[in-house]
Amino acid sequence: MSHSPNHSHDVFTIECENVILREYRIEDLDALHNLTWQPHFHAFLLDWNVTREQREEWINQYEIPENRRFIDAVSEGKDIGELRLRLGIIHKSTGEFIGVCGTGILDRVSPPNREIYYGISSTHHNKGYTTQAARGLITYLFENTNTSELIAIAQTRNVPSNKVIQKCGFEIQHNLTIEDREYHYYKLRKN
Fold it and tell me: Bridge-partner residues for 118, per DSSP?
């Protein structure tokens, strides 16, 4: 696993086996928008399916600039604080934007509450790509930031997502309810 130099003109990436994690770019807008309207995204990820106009505003005004602040903080050895990092999952052989993987603060639970999250296109389910992406991001966070503990949540009925979390070494802590949906709540501590 490797990541590119963090100079302002370089595109930040994390290399995995079959996929690359890459910071969002403006040209990802349509692929990202289409992905978030797939039925499983709608069912399992809260607040992701918005209008294209809203998505365009978010990617331009918030997501890309905050990614840059996160990457700059890491490259300068500063604390990432509550900054988020949102990455596209890019298929190595096709260059296709097939999913998302990121980290941020889950404000619905008490600290430490830096979570990882992910979602992948229905055409790429059950190929191990999501697990590769999640492991790549976890390794990056533990090796390059002051993060010593991560959390993850998945709806109890979302069997594939729970499997990814468990494959990444997270241990279930308890269940919690968010907006009338039941979730498993997991933790992973840096070795």
Answer: 101
Say whether pLDDT at 29 is over 50: yes
Which of 142-161 are b and which e, b meaning 16 or more Cβ less than 10 Å from the residue's Cβ?
beebebeebbbbbbeebeeb
**pLDDT for residue 40:** 81
Domain assignment present for residue 3? The answer is: no
| Count of structural domains, the chain | 1
CA-CA distance, 141 to 80, in Å (whole number)?
10
Q: For residue 165, what are the domain limits?
A: 13-189
Specify if 55 maps to a domain.
Answer: yes
CA end-to-end distance (rounded Å), the chain: 18
pLDDT beyond 90 at 49: no
**Helical segments of 17-128, H only:** 29-36, 39-44, 52-58, 64-75
Give the CATH number, domain containing residue 61.
3.40.630.30
Residue 165: pLDDT over 70: yes
Its pTM stands at: 0.92
The reported pLDDT for the residue numbered 6 is 41
Q: Which residues in 119-133 are b (16+ Cβ under 10 Å) and which e?
A: bbbeebeeeebbbbb
Q: Is 10 helix (H, G, I), strand (E, B) or coil?
A: coil
How many whole angstroms separate alpha carbon 30 and alpha carbon 52? 8
